[in-house]
User: Fold these one by one.
Assistant:
Number 1:
Amino acid sequence: MFDFVVIGAGFAGSVIAERAANVLGKKVLVVEKREHIGGNCYDEKISDVLVHRYGPHLFHTNSKAVFDYLSRFTEWELYHHKVLAFVDGQKVPIPFNLNTMYALFPFSLAKTIEKKLLSKYGYGEKVPILTLRKESDKDLKFLSDFVYEKIFKHYTAKQWGVSPEEIAPEVTARVPVSISKDDRYFTDRYQAVPKEGYSKVFEKMLDHPNIEVMLGTDCDTLLRFDFGEGKVYLNDKVFNGKIVYTGMIDALFDFKFGHLPYRSLDLVFETMNKSSFQKTATVNYPNDYDFTRITEFKHIHPTSTDTTVILKEYPKTYIAKRDIPFYPVFTQQNHELYEKYKKEAQRFANVIFVGRLAEYRYYDMDDVVKRALDVFEEKLYE
Ligand code: FAD
Ligand code: UDP
């Protein structure tokens, strides 16, 4: 009775389900093991403050196509994310930029380094810390050692359990040193949050007579993947429609080559009887405490309540069945392990793997939406 079965109701699954129903007129079953749609982007109210249940989610993209597509399901509130880091007793702007340098260094030293940065890289350039570390000039080396030590080393140790050199360079390059006075965390062309929050976006995407959503249902209970035959059974009958799988790829194959490692988080929310707690939405604590950052949601979704809600993120190793697999861990070895699963996945001609877990990629929301739209066009549009 269904043409498509989509496993997971995060952005990857919801985009495909929406496109299959609206563009192709297909009947779609969405199977989601959590009790809600939206995956890790899910938000809900605590004490009248809209909070992101699985950590702060800030939408930013340079893709007009992605922004236009999502705009069908929401109006936006313009929002530019600002982050401070607590360093040497001060709260200074992150990404580390010229303002951060003037706040932390004596004026004459900051001036000397600024001149050198401008002549070497030019205003507006963004330099990953691991690139800056290759500088031999004594002042630039002083800068890179400082930034490495005070911003990246201990934060990365908390977040990933390793040093910045032991993970893929793209990870720390997400927050490059910025040769500018722009204190925004992102510089993308489109930056905003959905006016009524992310959960409402998903409700609109999945609100279609052709889409049935089953919550609280692990796909294991409905689907059986026969690896020998390369066939999938839905309620014990061979299913010849399309299957879109957005869960962990290693779990689907019973971890036959071993577990793909993830990092997880303990997310600790606190409601406070005061109208505000900190100056910016997020404050990072690279060198202090066991949590990496505190986010105060009223900055993201303003409300005029007397209470405020904050979130502390405590990173930890992901343990199967206990934790949520939030971050794939990028090392060459893990990439090679993923490639084995990817090859195995080709046994199933009618199963498509999309999303952060299924592709073991550090996708942001816009990346996932783009990827799902591309997969739809390339593999499902008929
Ligand atoms: P998910 O959202 O994980 O959805 C997958 C869904 O599949 C889940 O709901 C899961 O329950 C379900 N599922 C898995 N296995 C099964 C199964 N066997 N049966 C049934 N259902 C199953 N991106 C940004 O752009 N900006 C940000 O500021 C940002 N902040 C983030 C902060 C944190 C702490 C984290 C963890 C991520 C952040 N992201 C951010 C990334 C964003 O969350 C992802 O890009 C996006 O959620 C990926 O969507 P997805 O559909 O691939 O995965
Ligand atoms: N990072 C850091 N110090 C900071 C901010 C980021 O060391 O103050 C590093 C850390 O390794 C982190 C990565 O940069 O995991 C990417 O940061 P981002 O804020 O993009 O992480 P996310 O929001 O995805 O958790």
Note: The chain has three domains: 4-37+206-259+329-380, 89-178, 262-317.
Number 2:
Amino acid sequence: MKAIIPVAGIGTRLQPLTNKTPKVLINVAGKPMLFHLIDELIKSGKIGTIILIIGYLGEQIRDAIAKTYGNSNVKFEYAEQKETLGLGHAVYHAKKFVKDEPVLIVLGDTIFEFDLNSVLANEYSAIGVKDVEDTSRFGIVENENGFVKRMIEKPAPGTTNSKAAIAGVYFVKEGQRLFKSVEYLMANDIKTKNEFQLTDALMKLVMDGEKMIVFEIENWFDCGKPETLLSTNSYLLNRDYKAEQQYEFTGTSVYPPVFIGEGVDIKNAHIGPNVTIADGSKVKNSCVTNSIILENAVAENAELDYVVLGAGEHITGIQTNIVKADNIISSF
Ligand code: UTP
């Protein structure tokens, strides 16, 4: 089966981190967020081809995938979305790779926990949802006997009783029908919030008679903002913690869970909990908690809590709730 992953977005909410690094390549709990997703797809044993919709800094994504998955049995295809005109528009770029066959669509900047094999075995198209309290920030699905009845983008308060938010996992039985639905939106310039939305294309399918079931996503971790990037990092480190994983560095106490990459140099430090330090970084005379330090960065005489330090950056002093990248410090 084929999976489509749109990763063409600019990632404005993670700037300045995304000025030079594509959002989906940012290391969360030891590997790029996109690789958490790809590894799950490969583990299912059911996905033979992964189609990436690339755009902004797309070459970096291609290179990273070739390096990591060059020897895997899964085939990678790439399509370029030159303008980020929305998720429906992004997915449409996979058209040339898909025959009249089922496709799985998953967002590249989200980490999911759900039973993938049972979704892929569905008799009908399917959309993943998770209940949320504040429905006004999400696409919301109303169902009738488990089948999608209506989807509403960011509903005004009191306009729906449903709390089922669209989580970013879609299974479409006949991929080509979905592309036709997007073509209809484009031909008639039907946009919501100025974008060709996947939600609108799916709603058109339902209105045209497609049966689409709603399934529960157990857990759903967004990596799109600094605070969610750090909470996802912390969740994954705790989930995957193995007591036998020990780290030893001169004059240093390590409080798990942490991930420390290859070639990392640490001296006289307090590390953890909930810390990722990517390959080639240096930490000297510092205390680091609840943070991500990306590749080849340096923390010296620093006290970092809820900090994302971009690749190759240098930081000192007491810092909290900041992102530093491209030599710019941004608070959150
Ligand atoms: P987001 O809505 O989070 O957009 O897209 P973004 O650009 O990544 O981040 P912000 O909003 O500017 O901070 C969700 C996923 O869909 C992809 C993105 O790359 C991301 O993986 N996407 C979105 C596309 O590929 N093309 C689009 O036109 C829109």
Note: The mean pLDDT is 96.
Number 3:
Amino acid sequence: MAVIIDGKEVAREKREQIKARVEELKKQGKSVGLAVIIVGENPASRVYVNNKKKGCLEVGIESFEYALPESTTEEELKALVEKLNNDDRVNGILCQLPLPKHINEDAVINTISPEKDVDAFHPQNVGHIMIGDYTFLPCTPAGIMEMLKFYNISVSGKKCVVIGRSNIVGKPMAMLLLKENGTVEICHSRTENLKNETLSADILVAAVGKTKFVTEDMVKQGAVVIDVGMNRDEDGKLCGDVDFINVEKKASYITPVPGGVGPMTITMLLENTVRAVEK
Ligand code: GUN
């Protein structure tokens, strides 16, 4: 049976440290503020945004919500971002994705000042991640690295397989594992014989978006399995990409959903917001 990685516990410890740093900044007369933009009525985005605001409250970061209607134009959204770029109360700007289809996400991301880009989505920050000299950490991958560190799971020299090549998770995850000297492979929907690849993984990260996509037969005995999935099953219950009940028997460590990666993603957003002020 695997050790279950407790993302809530890792997040709690990390948030205590962040809270102390926010208090220290406040003593120096500095405020810490995060602007959170949400466009339209996507229910999942609403849950994420509420959790992000709750996280801010917990550590003493002031959050400013901008909830815009679905009909908002790209120009209007970019104008708001420009305004927030110049607002001294705002140290970080987060625009919740996905945006409605008529808005070009890249164009909006490119408008966010790289110094306030706490998601680390701006090409300038992506470049820093590629080089390995980043200020802002990509939230989900950085949260996963924190969990590995907390459980003393070494990455160096290990075969790491990431399933998923998104800009938000898959690609930056590969970069952070590489920085820690992992031997890294990215698999995706066009990968041939996926099982052959995943069976070689000492550390397997699933960021696919499909319930029970990773089954027991795809996992090496003793592997560390990290589940980034946030799916709903047929009963509407939150579940990941991994068939947890069966994979748990084979893995050495495994993250649950909920209570694994999710709390850490938000924690790293808070970390980035504090960093935006500290630097
Ligand atoms: N949508 C899904 N994940 C994220 C995230 O980490 N940041 C933002 N801004 N939108 C998202």
Note: The radius of gyration is 19 Å.
